[in-house]
Design a protein that fits this description.
Layout: H1 2-16, H2 21-32, H3 42-54, E1 59-63, H4 69-75, E2 83-88, H5 91-103, E3 110-114, H6 117-123, E4 130-135, H7 142-151, E5 153-162, H8 178-192, E6 196-205, E7 208-217
Parallel strand pairs: 1-2, 1-4, 2-3, 4-5
Antiparallel strand pairs: 5-7, 6-7
Length: about 220
Amino acid sequence: MQAAWTRVDEYIVDRLVPSDSALKNVLSANTAANLPPHDVAPNQGKLLHIFARMISARRVLEIGTLGGYSTIWLARALPEGGKVVTLEADVAHAKVARSNIEMAGLAGVVELHVAPALESLARLPAKEPFDLVFIDADKQNNPAYLEWALKLSHSGTVIIGDNVVRDGGITDPDSVDPRVLGVRRFFDMIADEPRLTATALQTVGSKGWDGFTIAIVNDHL
C-alpha cells in the first residue's frame, strides 16, 4: 500500500502543488545537511498554507522548525506585516533553517528561536497571542505544548497537532513508547478542554500512515 499512497501523493502534488526553486532548494539543503526526513509532504505544506489563509492569520507559532520547510509554507500565507515565530531546539537544524528562510526571502517574516521549546515558550509575551499554532516537535511534550498554545491564543485561534496517529499506535493502551504516550495524553487533554472544539484525521501518503488534530479555541474561561 505504501507505493500506492506515494503515487497518489505524487499525482496530487503534480496537479495542485506547483513546485518552485525555493522549496526545492530547501528540501535539497535539508538532505545535504543530513536532517531527519521529517518535513511535511508538499501537499501537507500547502494545506497548512491554506489553513493560515482561511483564517486570515497574521501571527503564527510553529513548535518544531527542523529545516524550515513548513515554516516557509506558513510564512508565505501571511499578509504584509505578518509574523511566524518558530521554535527549534537543535542548533544544527536551526542553522540550516535560518539559511533556508533567508534563501526564500522570508527573513523579515520569520522569527526563529533556538532553545528547547518549553524554554522559548515561557519567554513569549502572552499579550501578543497567535492566530494559528502548529505543533510538530517531540511528541512526549505535546501535552505541555498544548498548555502553552492555549496560554498564547485568543478566541478563534486554530491549533494543529501533527503526527498524532503513529501508524495506529495511539490505539494501544499498553504502549510504552513515550511518543505514543505523549500523543494519547494530548488527545485526552483536548477532549477534556472546554475551550476547544476539535477533531482529528488519519492521513496516508508518501509519509506513511499518520494524521493530525485540528482544534479551534472557543473562548478563554
